[in-house]
């Protein structure tokens, strides 16, 4: 039996509520040892993980890890939001009664960490001192050292963040389970990822990967956070956040926005390096996956990134697509690569879209650890890296991280954008000035599913505000909450819908994307500022061709621009029918949203 009291004393963990919680779960999980960690323990824990073979060296100060091959992405069908109030049941939150789920999780976790260390990770999902700080603290308990190392990068970790907070911290319990015997994806699946939102308790069993296991990020930073935000008047969204300064005018604009998982948030937020588009604009990075947004005392809308790091998709990250990302994972950064290809002889890592595939196969292993040179002919073309393989690095490593990225007051939000991953219909950008139409646009965001979620690749689905996998209460209440919060702001943001993924008949992307995405964003800020007028269409204001900065774009792209800047009315009318069905699922959706829908539909019919 562990001497919990003495261990916590030695670690300086004085908060009695946290102590009681740790002792309670140590008893249930049956861990053999307890260790309280802080960011200062990183070097020692890295060394332990290297010694244990859990991490492999990937050049100076960089590391490589593999997760179990059936545990490589969030498992949405096993993810549940539980509360004691059935009114919280939505279409996407997989609601279950708390009284049903809690005993199940206790049973699964009982004795499940026997022989292991239970790490206690006190964390804060916010810079210290922010107005939403009291919703940002948590204590993750995990029996997995790699999860600790990831959390140290992704959150602010140490007892100093929670000792003075009494009982206002999220209880986040993670137990890995016996990964080889969990029946992942079968009818006998034993995994459960449960957020008991009205008790601020997260119970995740059966994974050691990403959002299933780093509980500060998705489970707290999004699901629990959005439930708390609903009850306490702020928004919590799967949004990136960036700042653009026009050096000629000295004006700075901050834009946040949602793109479904693996649809370009990290790339947009990081890739617009300081020197993008000559040197007129200075672009700063705030966050790539989560934003918490509130109305300040001055009536302005503010936003902040609650995270301390980036857990980015590796695929297609290279010097050309995202040089900033490449610079933030160079030797010495402490970056961790997960499920990419690895060469133990040279300690190199590689993934699809990194650059030339190594021609000398000597030493190379794929993400499962299989030797590439020994592949059977029928597997010769299998990807080397898992499509959801990732890199983890801290914000401080990102070369263009904003100077004020840790400012507790957050930054003013001027624009909110939604980005679908759609191969047709959606133009490059359309600006929306009406608040209800902006919220309506977010609610009807759609995307072709990607590798960040298990088993759904290629299927087209709606993803309201890019929160579908993270929704914690009903969509109707969610829509009403958006209208309430934005309605309260006295300085209104502009909304826009963007699409970098429109394709030609031959399958090529019509827009070059990545760093070039600054062009439509600049147009949006000029529109907000009254410098350009655009063209009014039934679905928003589109740029006139000459209003966009087209300097340096290639011939092909210039030829495709007409398609990128037009509205296909019949195709849109068809879409309105799909949207109607989509929205009709949400009982009690605010009338303002339906009115916005009908206005757009009528405008299309009159076009
Ligand atoms: P999560 O971390 O899962 O929430 O993903 P994310 O939204 O941050 O997506 P990310 O930026 O990592 O991009 C996912 C994939 O889309 C990567 O393979 C990118 O290379 C690709 N991608 C991003 N931006 C663009 C773009 O402008 N054009 C094209 N064609 N692909 C892009
Ligand atoms: C996402 O899937 O949207 C992510 C990655 O940001 S994970 O942390 O695994 O959820
Ligand atoms: Mn995400």
Automatic annotation (TrEMBL):
One GO term (biological process): propionate catabolic process
Required cofactor(s): Mn(2+)
A GO CC term attached to the entry: cytosol
NCBIfam families: PRK04210.1
Domain Phosphoenolpyruvate carboxykinase C-terminal P-loop intervals: 234-600
Active site: residue positions: 263
Enzyme class, UniProt record, top EC level: lyase
InterPro entries: PEP_carboxykinase_C, PEP_carboxykinase_GTP, PEP_carboxykinase_GTP_C, PEP_carboxykinase_GTP_N, PEP_carboxykinase_N
Protein name per its UniProtKB record: Phosphoenolpyruvate carboxykinase [GTP]
KW Cytoplasm (keyword) present: yes
Function: Catalyzes the conversion of oxaloacetate (OAA) to phosphoenolpyruvate (PEP), the rate-limiting step in the metabolic pathway that produces glucose from lactate and other precursors derived from the citric acid cycle.
Catalytic activity: oxaloacetate + GTP = phosphoenolpyruvate + GDP + CO2
The Phosphoenolpyruvate carboxykinase GTP-utilising N-terminal domain, residue ranges: 20-229
PANTHER family for this protein: PHOSPHOENOLPYRUVATE CARBOXYKINASE (PTHR11561), PHOSPHOENOLPYRUVATE CARBOXYKINASE [GTP]-RELATED (PTHR11561:SF0)
Gene behind this protein: pckG
Subunit structure: Monomer.
Species name: Nocardioides kongjuensis
Location(s) in or outside the cell: Cytoplasm
């Amino acid at each position: 039996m562990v001497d919990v009291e003495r261990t916590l004393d030695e670690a300086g963990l004085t908060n009695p509520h946290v102590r009681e919680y740790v002792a309670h779960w140590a008893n249930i999980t049956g861990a053999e040892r307890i260790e309280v960690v802080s960011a200062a323990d990183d070097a020692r824990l890295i060394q332990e993980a290297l010694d244990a073979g859990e991490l492999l060296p990937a050049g100076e100060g960089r590391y490589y890890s593999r997760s179990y091959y059936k545990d490589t992405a969030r498992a949405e069908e096993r993810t549940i939001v539980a509360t004691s109030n059935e009114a919280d049941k939505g279409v996407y939150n997989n609601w279950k009664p708390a009284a049903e789920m809690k005993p199940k999780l206790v049973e699964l976790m009982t004795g499940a960490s026997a022989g292991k260390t239970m790490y206690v990770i006190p964390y804060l999902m916010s810079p210290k001192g922010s107005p939403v700080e009291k919703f940002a603290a948590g204590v993750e308990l995990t029996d997995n050292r790699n999860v600790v190392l990831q959390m140290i990068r992704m959150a602010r970790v140490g007892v100093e963040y929670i000792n003075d907070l009494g009982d206002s911290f999220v209880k986040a319990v993670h137990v890995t389970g016996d990964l080889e015997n969990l029946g992942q994806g079968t009818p006998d699946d034993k995994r459960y990822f449960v957020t008991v939102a009205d008790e601020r308790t997260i119970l995740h069993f059966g994974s050691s990967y990403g959002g299933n296991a780093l509980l500060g990020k998705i489970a707290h930073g999004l699901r629990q956070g959005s439930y708390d935000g609903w009850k306490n008047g702020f928004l919590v969204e799967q949004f990136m956040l960036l700042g653009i300064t026009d050096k000629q005018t000295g004006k700075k604009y901050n834009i946040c926005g949602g793109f479904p998982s693996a649809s370009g948030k990290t790339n947009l937020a990081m890739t617009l390096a300081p020197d993008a588009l000559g040197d007129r604009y200075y672009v700063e990075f705030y966050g790539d996956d989560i934003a918490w947004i509130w109305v300040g005392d001055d009536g302005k809308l503010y936003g902040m990134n609650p995270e301390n790091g980036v857990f980015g998709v590796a695929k297609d990250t290279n010097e050309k697509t995202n040089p900033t990302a490449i610079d933030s994972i160079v030797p010495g950064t402490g970056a961790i690569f997960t499920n990419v290809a690895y060469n133990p002889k040279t300690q190199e890592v590689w993934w699809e879209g990194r650059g030339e595939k190594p021609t000398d196969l000597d030493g190379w292993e794929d993400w499962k650890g299989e030797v590439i040179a020994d592949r059977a002919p029928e597997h010769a073309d299998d990807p080397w890296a898992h499509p959801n393989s990732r890199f983890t690095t801290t914000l401080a490593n990102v070369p263009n991280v904003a100077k004020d990225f840790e400012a507790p007051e957050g930054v003013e939000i001027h624009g909110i954008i939604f980005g679908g991953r759609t191969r047709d219909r959606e133009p490059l950008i359309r600006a929306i000035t009406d608040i209800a139409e902006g919220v309506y646009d977010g609610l009807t965001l759609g995307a072709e599913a990607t590798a960040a979620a298990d088993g759904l690749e290629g299927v087209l689905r709606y993803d309201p505000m890019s929160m579908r996998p993270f929704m914690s209460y009903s969509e109707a209440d969610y829509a009403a909450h958006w209208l309430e919060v934005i309605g309260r702001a006295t300085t209104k943001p502009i909304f826009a819908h963007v699409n970098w993924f429109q394709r030609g008949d031959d399958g090529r992307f019509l827009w070059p994307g990545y760093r070039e995405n600054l062009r439509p964003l600049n147009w949006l800020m000029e529109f907000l500022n009254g410098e350009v007028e655009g063209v009014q269409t039934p679905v928003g204001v589109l740029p006139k061709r000459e209003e966009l900065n087209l300097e340096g774009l290639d011939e092909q792209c210039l030829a495709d621009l007409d398609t990128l800047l037009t509205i296909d009315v019949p195709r849109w009318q068809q879409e309105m029918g799909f949207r109607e069905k989509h929205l009709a699922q949400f009982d009690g959706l605010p009338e303002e949203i339906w009115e916005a829908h009908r206005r757009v539909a009528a405008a299309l019919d009159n076009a």
